[in-house]
Amino acid sequence: MSSGPAPDFSGKTSIFWLHIKKSAGLSTRKMLGDLYPQTDRNKMPTGFLQAPKAEYNDILNNFRVLLGPYQFKRCQFAQKYLYPDDFETRFRFAFSRDPLARCMSQFRYLWARSDPARLGAKTSLMTDRLVFDGTPEQDFDRFLAAIEECRASTSNIKPYGLHFQTHVAAMADDITDDQGKSLMDAVFRLEDLFAAINMVRVGFGHAPIAPDAAPHLNRSRDTGFQPTPAQRTKVRALFAADYEIYEGKCWRDFS
Description:
Blueprint: E1 14-18, H1 25-32, H2 56-60, H3 74-82, E2 90-96, H4 99-112, H5 122-125, H6 136-152, H7 161-167, H8 171-174, E3 186-189, H9 193-203, H10 229-238, H11 240-248
Parallel strand pairs: 1-2, 2-3
Helix pairs in contact: 6-10
């Protein structure tokens, strides 16, 4: 099975991987190895003016970096400001996760951090207005309502902070231009991560990773909660364009 454009490495001299939050970022970085130079994203995150061009991609993938009107249009930012002369020579790709699974992972990640009894990080990651203090079912309704509020906001910061908004952002906006045209050379399903990374590695002259060497890092904690039919319908509405990508625009032919 294959959908979307077939990956083509001809004329490509480097990669550009857009990390979509809650889509195996740590594992992807590890498997890409030196194809993807990394920078400090936690202790002393740097800016584009201070870093070598090779690190621009990793800086862009850091939610702490402020991009103004391009905060949720990162591919456009890269095309316009980071690689205005060599955007087309980069093999540009991303991974699409089942939108419901990604939304549930977002919820588990943020919900676990909203209660000091769980991880004690509420004050650093969440605002006081977003409070998860009910059952998982009630809190998931609150979570989805918060996403709706963010989508309606003209601010990248309000009402729930940059950390929240970047983690629940739709994938579709990040990989397209103002006309909705994809700026990616390929989008892969997340379940094809291992095969896709090896395709990229081989395409750029690197040895493939052995199956037993593939990392499995930072897995979300399972709350045991499953969304109701009404909640699933709301997720599909919130991430409608992401469903279109996942269900019909991902390359899957690895035969």
